[in-house]
Amino acid sequence: QAAAGGGRAALRACGVHNVCRLLSRRAHGFYARDAGVAHRKNLGLLRRIMCQESTKFKNVWTTHSASPIAYERGRIYMDNYQCCITSIAQQPRLIYQKSKCAKSEKIEDALLLECPLGEMLPSPSDYKASLIVLTVQNWLLRLSADSGEVLEKVYLAGSCCKFFRYLSWDTPQEVMIVKSAQNKLPAAARQAGIQQTVLFYLAVFQVLPLSFIGMLEINKKIFGNSVTDVAVSNGILIVMYSMGLVRLYNFKAILEQFMEQPFDLGQEFNWNGQVGVVGKYPFGLPCNIKITDTPPLLFEASSLENAFQIGGYPWHYIITPNKKKHKGVFHICSLKDNALAKNGIQDMKCCSLEPDWIYFHPDMSGRIIHVGPNLIKVLKLKEVKNHADQMEIAEDFTIVANRENCVNNNVTVTASGRVVKKRFTLLDDDPEQETFKIVDYEDELDLLSTVAVTQIGADGRAHLDFHCNEHGILLKSIPLKESWDVTYSHEVYFDKDLVLHIEQKPNRRFSCYVYQMVCDTARDDD
């Protein structure tokens, strides 16, 4: 009520009677007492400082490891999450180092959990960031992000399932899904004619405070024999099939319709002849959601390799026609009536080893990013003139790789005048030509970042570029000091004033390079 009263007072004070105008003025910082004004001003200053020509990014720390390296919100995790290093300090420093864990305690997956704003939580530890991890022995643990201390532990697997492997968000920072590996019978059991009908188990949790919603099975008898994978996102159950079919169901409705009995963590229960405590060893969690009939189908589409995305405004989806010859061709269609948008077929006609890729822009603008070896196209949906019910795909801006010095003539003439024809042409992603490898979006600074790589002799050289998210203008280019081998796996994180590059080499060798923003001086040529 106080906030509403303050909003009305602000409206009266400035004579604004339109909510949209008020929100627009707030976004531009018109009201000095607004909670987000100082933060927005600071981020705006940081963006301007970072994009100055005199500002450099310096490689301040490098490490190597025989185990995977992960990065989450200013923290670098090593040694299977037993070692945590902060990257926020001027130079990365150790936060905690736990003793080496046994193979039975190996962590399979992890999610960072952050405190929701404006909510009362039962425990003081809930207000600090924590890490939800899933172990190989089916324990779900909540660890303190500052010390690694175990804050909560839940045993997942009762008699129904013994192989939970994946963590994901249904609703980010609110509802979490724990998914099992696909159930497969041993060869001897299959030869004996034993049928396996349950393919996956999904356990659903509300987080902060951590609470059990329910567990359900994905069964062949309900969803069909050709199911290959399932996922849950934004209240939608996504079921994928071997023939490229993708089907969507209302996940919330499934939970409500087929819930047999709700259970709380720590509650004693007697379930199907078993007596135990929910979330405690050895009973784990009951499978209390039994889907007995096929749920109402919301939507289905057929796409090559099950590639399917929804986004934009009004809602559209992106698929690739379900034939191998159409690989690299993307259709953008209306979710309302499946109508193909005008100019909705996007095809870069790339001749490359790695395919181009397309996705809805994560800035919630409804735009689409299409990335090829030497071209990034940012597309937008807009109404067709004089046809308000039809949408078309228009180009917002493009970013082009620097290939000015690249000469690719199929016909050359020697000094003697002899004409020589090449029997092959260079691929669009040939290592000797500058090629886009990564495109990302930094939401707090509203910058589009790209990584482009060129192979120079035995070494590959990469640079990270920052572009204006609204117009695509190049604002800053940062050369990465380390060599970039295009045959290795790479991840690059751009997080405000930090750039972090994680590289995976053959034989499970990992490297991490950390760059920090520094002000250039006359005596510092880094």
UniProtKB/TrEMBL annotation:
The keyword Transmembrane helix applies. GO terms for biological process: protein ubiquitination. It comes from Nesospiza acunhae. The gene is Dcaf17. This is DCA17 factor. PANTHER family: DDB1- AND CUL4-ASSOCIATED FACTOR 17. Keywords: Membrane, Transmembrane, Transmembrane helix. The chain crosses the membrane at residues 198-218, 230-249. GO terms for cellular component: Cul4-RING E3 ubiquitin ligase complex. InterPro entries: DCAF17. It holds the Pfam family DCAF17.
